[in-house]
Amino acid sequence: MNHNIINFRHYTQSLSRQCILPLLTGFILYLLIPLQIQANPASLLNKPQTKIQAPFVELASKQIPIPNRTWIIASTKQDPPQSGPVRIAHQVLFRVENGAVRAFVIIHTNINPSLNGWGISQDCQNHDHPFTAVFERKNQHYKCAYVHSLQSIPDDATWSNALVYAKHNKLHLPENWIVTGIRVADRLDIVDVRYGFDPQALIGTVQALQLSPKVNKVLQETATEALIKWHEIALYLVGRGFRRQLGKDDLILPMPRLHTNVAASIVIASRLQKLEALYTAGWLSEADFIAQQNLIKQSFTPQANVTVDIWRLGALKTAGHTVQSGFWMWGMNYLFLGNAHLAGTLALTKSFISPIRYYLEEMAWNTWGPRRNPTLPIIDFPSEIERVKK
Fold first, then answer.
1. Is the dihedral of CA 223, 224, 229, 232 positive or negative?
2. Cβ contacts of 318 within 8 Å, gap of 6 or more
């Protein structure tokens, strides 16, 4: 019996030594691998490129439409569980042509739902942008878009990883971008997607010309106008993808196109160059030169902000309701009283008193109605308001 106990002890001790060594080795590797990755983050980028194509990419159970080209996943990141009650998934896509990044897509969407809504994007309310629009902002439902140009992306871990990817693969990044941002959200979920394009890639073959700053500014405004028009179809498809209504055979998001009337082709660019040459040579006065350029600029003046003014909207609704109810009240009074003058006096008196109540009710609903549910502070992703030339 004692001999058996000794053998059993010897067996367990040998087994424990055999188990401890692999566990200890694994623990050491667990500690060293993150340090190696941190020292050489590009080591993770040696794997084959992940390429995707339109019509959409899926992230955190959402469908995000992408323009009809081949895209490369440059960076993907998910917030860890300990980051807070709401976790966000982030992804950056690159459109690469001839060794240069010509377009990008930055996606932010939630992994788990929020119970108190997401708020509106700061960029959708920045009136310094060429275009901002808030299409829906009530009952924790938000839908907005904006277009603006920038010289750099703010500090963001996902974008930083994408920059590491670009550097590792020796991809050139333009200094200037034109961005269309779209946010669609309800009480539980959100999709915040930003489509960035190289203006020179949109302009096309004119990039081969040596353009002056004045001409280049005109072409830049042309590309901006193209994205202002393009945001409409992008907003529609992002909204459908938010509800998972996109199919493989569905409408594909096209690449932005320049307006046909002011296509920034070599012909247009050459005419602008000749116009400036005539001015420089003294053949055109400054007034004539400005007038000729204004004729071009008027064709693609960026659209003004179309955010709904709830105070003006409330006043218009109150005025319409007052006129309608005034005629209705006059008719009913006349039927009962048989006196047109007395019926009109009563209806007019009511028309002066009732609009005050109607307007106050309308403003109270517009101000506090959408906020009747408790809300968290605005949850925004790294804003592109801060633009710093690097």
1. positive
2. 355, 358, 359, 362
Question: Around Cβ 382, how many Cβ atoms within 10 Å?
Answer: 16
Token pair 């700061």: residue: 122
Which pLDDT score is estimated for 359? 77
Which two structure tokens, joined as six digits, stand for 8?
């059993």
What pTM was estimated for this model as a whole?
0.60
Residue with tokens 């277009």: 147
DSSP string, 99-143: TEEEEEEEEEEESS--SS-----SGGG-TTSSEEEEEEEETTEEE
Alpha-carbon dihedral of residues 166, 171, 173, 179, nearest 10 degrees?
A: -70
What's the CA gap between 21 and 28, in Å, rounded? 11
Do 65 and 253 touch, CB atoms closer than 8 A? yes
Q: What is the pLDDT of residue 366?
A: 64
3-state secondary structure of 136: strand
Cβ burial, residue 121 (10 Å; 0-12/13-18/19+): buried
Half-sphere exposure of 101 (CA within 13 A, CB side): 26
pLDDT at 153: 65
The stretches of the chain forming alpha helices (DSSP H) are 2-39, 157-168, 199-203, 213-242, 266-281, 286-297, 310-337, 340-368
Q: How far apart are the first and last CA of the chain?
A: 80
Task: At 117, list the tokens.
Answer: 């809504």
| Contact between residue 346 and residue 329 where contact means Cβ atoms under 8 Å apart | yes
pLDDT at 211: 57
Rounded to a whole number of angstroms, the CA Rg of the chain reads 31
Q: Tell me, rounded to whole angstroms, the distance of Cα 365 from its chain centroid.
A: 28
Series of mean pLDDT values for 10-residue runs along the chain (390 residues): 48 49 51 41 49 86 91 90 82 92 94 84 88 85 90 73 91 89 93 91 58 66 82 90 83 74 48 75 85 63 45 75 82 85 83 79 67 45 42
Between CA 62 and CA 242 the distance in angstroms is: 6
Give the DSSP letter of residue 61.
T
